[in-house]
Amino acid sequence: MSRVLYDLCGIDSELRFSPYCWRVKLALAHKGLDVETRAWHFTDKQALAFANYDKVPVLVDGDRTVVDSYEIMRYLDQAYPETPSLLGDATAEARVRYIKFHAERVMAPGIMRTIIMDLVNAIHPKDRDYFRETREKRFGCRLEEFHSPARGLAQLDAALEPLRGLLDQTEFIDGDVPGAGDYLVFGNFMWARSVSTADLISNADPVHAWRERMLDLHDGLGRQALRISDIEGSY
């Protein structure tokens, strides 16, 4: 059975920066499932018409098409129960769902405010007008006004405080081994790492040590991924 993941790319087809797609790639690796990734751009809406969806990730698994990173995780647990669980039982999943919203609504805004102009430069030129128009409508201001690394880093620092307390006591968010909670949060860090050289956390932060462990997971899947710093000057 072939699996295909439509995966957002940037100025280079191998620069894959979507935090949501990273969640899925890590979840598939956690399950030991192979996947072919296909580069997708923000403006390639027609390429996803078959899924009745206009954003990624989109996973095609044989005759099944699944959209939304969290729903893909749920699908993988249901379709492959013999592989390591991502979400756990109903009680564990309720906790993971909280982590999902914390990552998206509390952590991500601080990161976005910090890296937004780096992100614009990493996006493929054909997508930049679309990105600017849609994000300025969302933020209610120009990207240059929204961009504020000092404010963004302060937001992120506050958002990470609960995580610091947890990681002082355990190796991973989900305990002794990583799980969906780790991937939901780590996707944000892969997003920033892919498109920016901004230092989001200090080396002394327990979150930094956790991020290093996450980068090494699954044969270094995150650490080996192409970064904007690898290709600067080539475009």
Verbal overview:
This protein has 235 residues and is α+β, with helices and mostly antiparallel strands. Helices cover 55% and strands 8% of the residues. A four-stranded mixed beta sheet has the order 2-1-3-4, with helices on one face. Helix 1 crosses helix 8. The protein is globular. The model has no long low-confidence stretch (mean pLDDT 97).
Q: How are the elements arranged and paired?
A:
Elements: E1 3-8, H1 19-31, E2 36-40, E3 58-61, E4 64-67, H2 69-79, H3 90-122, H4 125-139, H5 143-146, H6 149-159, H7 161-167, H8 180-195, H9 206-220, H10 228-231
Parallel strand pairs: 1-2
Antiparallel strand pairs: 1-3, 3-4
Helix pairs in contact: 1-2, 1-8, 3-6, 3-8
